Amino acid sequence: MKKNLKKLFALGCTAALTLTTAGCSSSTSSNASEADTTAETSQEASADKEIYNVAIVKQLDHASLDEIANAVEAELDKIAEDNNVTIHYELYSGQNDQTTLKQIGDQAVADGVDAIIPIATLAAQVATVSAQQTQTPVVYAAVSDPEAAELTGIDYVTGTSDALNTEKIMDMIFAANPDVKNVGLLYSLSEANSTKPIADAKAYLDEKGISYTEQTANTNDEVITAASSLVADKVDAIFTPTDNVIMAAELAIFKDLAAAGIPHYTGADSFVRNGAFATCGVNYTDLGAQTADLAYQAITEGMDGMEDYYTAEGGIVTVNTETAKALNIDTAVFKDFGDVVEVKTTED
């Protein structure tokens, strides 16, 4: 049984942004009588449909979160068609700023949305605080460690987790190069998603007697500097979890890492599509669709009986063939790790 939220963290900003819901389109006709009949028919049809309003809130803009948001929107459209209902949704980005996210969440609640779908951990935490008084359903997407983020045991909160199988990615590093002596760990201290995977990676490497070099960063410029430091340290490979800060800067670092002969293993396929070498994780399109389904269930059936969170299925190996060629690594080395998806670098 879920419990009411007691205290997540203190946020002191007030709502300053205005949310809008999508409006219905209208059409005109040269025949006034026909137009009136059409309008009446449209109104009757609308009256027969349930109408729901949803706020979708990305923590920030980058490929992973964009992919999830697109999938959520597509699934909500499908749900509306399949169930003969109307679902209005608006998409917002918090620009990785806690104050902005709180303003968005507070206004969504004030506007009486039926559910909030926050994407990524900070967005989920902030939305949970905004919805505390009204108990508006919060159905988050892509929170790697809901328990560490204090998003469990709350009766109006559920969502999907993209929990990472760190051991499997570590195994991939050594499958590609059994002679690895030093692994770089590149992540942000501000990302809750990174805490457990980095701890797991250290434990794995300690057990194997492999050294590691840590570099942390919280801005794009810091990520570039941190990556340059790892190149200078001549690490044999780099591991980054599902870290939104590093993901946002991947396009700025992948060429230098590849040129230095350093494969970058990451926690999501979006990194790989932006130039990183390889990952083994979840499909974010599937995760987004699953999140939308859960949100509709929460709206229409209530939260009773729903789990604290649902872990998305993983096991998909994604490899960037252009980066693999630059590194001179044969992608067939990963054939025993799961279905291998080959991609090329894009800036989407």
UniProtKB/TrEMBL annotation:
<dbReference type="InterPro" id="IPR028082">
    <property type="entry name" value="Peripla_BP_I"/>
</dbReference>
<dbReference type="Pfam" id="PF04392">
    <property type="entry name" value="ABC_sub_bind"/>
</dbReference>
<dbReference type="InterPro" id="IPR007487">
    <property type="entry name" value="ABC_transpt-TYRBP-like"/>
</dbReference>
<keyword id="KW-0732">Signal</keyword>
<feature type="signal peptide">
    <location>
        <begin position="1"/>
        <end position="32"/>
    </location>
</feature>
<protein>
    <submittedName>
        <fullName>ABC transporter</fullName>
    </submittedName>
</protein>
<feature type="region of interest" description="Disordered">
    <location>
        <begin position="23"/>
        <end position="44"/>
    </location>
</feature>
